[in-house]
Every structure is written in C-alpha cells, then in structure tokens.
Amino acid sequence: MAEADTALGYEQARDELIEVVRKLEAGGTSLEESLALWERGEELAKVCRHWLEGARARLDSALAAREAAEED
Length: 72
What we know:
With 72 residues, the chain is mainly α. It is 86% helix and 0% strand. The protein has 3 helices and no strands. It has helices at residues 3-6, 10-26, 31-71. Helix 2 packs antiparallel against helix 3. The radius of gyration is 18 Å and the shape is rod-shaped. The model has no long low-confidence stretch (mean pLDDT 92).
C-alpha cells in the first residue's frame, strides 16, 4: 500500500473506489487508462480492507473484554 493511501480514511477510500468503478463501468477509456484505474481500484480496496479488518479487531477485542468482565 502506498504511503499516501495509508493516510486515507475509510470513507474517502470507499468514495474514490466507487468513482473508479463508475468510470470503468462507463467505458470509453483507453486500455492504458483502464489499467491505471483498475490498479488504483485495487489499492483503494486494500485501504478499505485494512480499515475494516482494524474495525473487526477492535470489535472482537471489546466483545472479549465484555465477556471476560461478565464472567467475573
């Protein structure tokens, strides 16, 4: 993941990914432009996955802590 991409928030990356997909689905771009869009989309998807995996880990940790507290 590029350093600049790691600074993107989830919503920002998601919105840009939606725009990339829209452009690819609309067609009318050259092969080179389509490849560049696809590559950007892959990077943005990685950013989104990173954020979602982090959120899942935080939720799992919070749920485990709550369960541990309830057992005491």
